[in-house]
Amino acid sequence: MSTPRLSQIEAAPTAVVERLVSLACLAPSVHNTQPWRWRYDGGRLSLSADLRRRLPAEDPRGRNLTISCGAALHHLQFAARALGWDTTVVRLPPDPDETLLADVVVTRRGHHAIERGDIDLLRTRCTDRRRFTAWPVPQDRLEDLCRLAAPWGVRAQALVDDGDRFRLELLANRALTFLEIDRDRQDEQDRWIDRATPEGIPLDLLPDDPEPLQARSRFRPGVLEDTRLVLHGGDRVIVLGGHGDDVGSWLRTGEAMSAIWLEATRAGMSVVPMSQPIEVESIRREIGRSVLGRAFEPHLLLRVGWQAIGRRGLPRTPRRPLADVLQV
Prior knowledge:
- The protein is α+β, with helices and mostly antiparallel strands.
- The chain has 10 helices and 9 strands.
- Strands 3-4-2-1-9 form a 5-stranded mixed beta sheet. The protein has a 4-stranded antiparallel beta sheet with strand order 5-6-8-7, with helices on both faces.
- β3 and β4 form a beta hairpin.
- The two termini are 25 Å apart.
- 40% of the residues are buried.
């Protein structure tokens, strides 16, 4: 698909683009690295990967970085629709800059009431790592969420079979063990916790010390009161992926992840990404073989469940100033 000729359309005002990018940057990202750069020039908004924020030990190929950028790209499209604007997206446009992921043209689609509920949804979505309740998400709800991936050309499969869940739990624990003995990965992860800058994961959003021999987490203990398992009894897992394992596929997986996460949030569900089993290549391949039956290449796992009623809301993770991520 080619972008429209700008001479034939009315480009969005800079103020509108600034608002859209601000909302797009509320998207989830690996360790809240916010690895994106935006540029608005001549009516075209460009999204690029910020390779300075790549995690070379945990994410050497940039899969998690690209998925994060895909989530921001979907957030932008979602915000534009809510505010009455159309978006035309070209993914991986031909360009000498290999970090360029997408070009977006934003155009007005006539009079349209602002969908304030959707804007609020972008602002309230968060990553709540506390233990889910034991009440499982019904299978039909999971299937509805999985169907949201199809428009992005992404495969989504909910793991409801007990055997698949058990196999995944074993593999997830093996991945955590791999992380624990890899000092480079552990040090890199720790550098993104409790930073003084508006990025990374605040300590008060990480669960505190788990009960001995009961629970494991990839992150070091925080100060948020909770205990939890890698996969708790009420957790359900959705595997996202595609036929390829490349930048274009990862970008679309990020868009699908954002679509699923926002609709899960709307329905009162909680979503937590599980990337660590995918980060260990041997375990990623084993998930594709023994859990998915080689149906597609896994890119990301999403834990889906219900948070306990009455739990206090969590503060938002910090976000970088707009001037740091958008060039106009």
